[in-house]
Write a structure and sequence with these properties.
Elements lengths: L3 H16 L9 E5 L4 E5 L13 E5 L15 H10 L5 E5 L2 H9 L4 E5 L16 E7 L5 H9 L9 E4 L3 E6 L2 H26 L1
Helix pairs in contact: 2-4, 3-5
Length: 203
């Protein structure tokens, strides 16, 4: 059961994301699990840097319906999919950072493999820069149900921390808001490094 502290932590994370410019023009969406059947999801069209707890809607994880009748994010189905696929996931952050958006277009394969970076250890369970961390990539799709089906068919190993949508951004999660926030910051740093490395290799 999510307590008020977790929703407060999510609001704080949204303000942090907004201050970094990682969810521009009201983009992005964030959620936290309430229980096995429901989650709190940011309302559509809200500036993430100024969200309050009142800007989150209770959504049914199985049906994507908000009983209040208010409009949750267009990508509600991706949040609820994560909660269904990963029962241990308790917070989901979706952002539109420049690094994630551009790198998702540069990488043409179905996986972005991160290797050799000490900051890989910011991701839970990673203990060495020598390991390879796979991040799944998917073509963007305005049909969220179809996109969710493609994600659901992917090897869970490649979805351990998050996934990229081409030309769109990063979705990541964690067992708590704090862990999801750490994964976001760690992945964004790794994407920045990977972008710079690829630019230098082209020179």
């Amino acid at each position: 059961m999510t307590d008020n502290l977790q929703l407060t932590a999510l609001v704080d994370a949204c303000h942090w994301i907004g201050a970094k410019g990682w969810a521009p023009a009201t983009g992005g969406n964030m959620s936290v699990r309430e229980d096995a059947n429901r989650c709190w999801l940011s309302e559509s069209g809200k500036d993430k840097g100024t969200l309050t707890p009142a800007d989150f809607l209770l959504v049914d994880i199985d049906t994507n319906i908000a009983p209040s009748g208010r409009k949750p994010s267009a990508e509600t189905g991706l949040h609820t999919l994560i909660y269904r696929l990963f029962p241990e996931a308790n917070a989901v952050l979706h952002v539109h950072t420049v690094n994630a958006t551009v790198l998702s277009r540069i990488e043409k394969s179905a996986l972005l493999n991160l290797h050799g970076y000490e900051m890989q250890k910011s991701l839970s369970g990673q203990t060495s820069h020598l390991d390879t961390v796979p991040v799944a990539l998917f073509d963007n799709d305005q049909d969220i149900d179809a996109l969710a089906r493609r994600i659901a068919d992917t090897d869970p190993v490649n979805l351990k921390y998050g996934f990229l949508l081409r030309g769109h951004g990063l979705t990541c999660w964690g067992r708590s808001v704090a862990e999801a926030r750490r994964h976001l910051e760690g992945l964004e740093f790794l994407f920045d490094c990977e972008m710079r490395l690829r630019l230098l290799e082209r020179e």
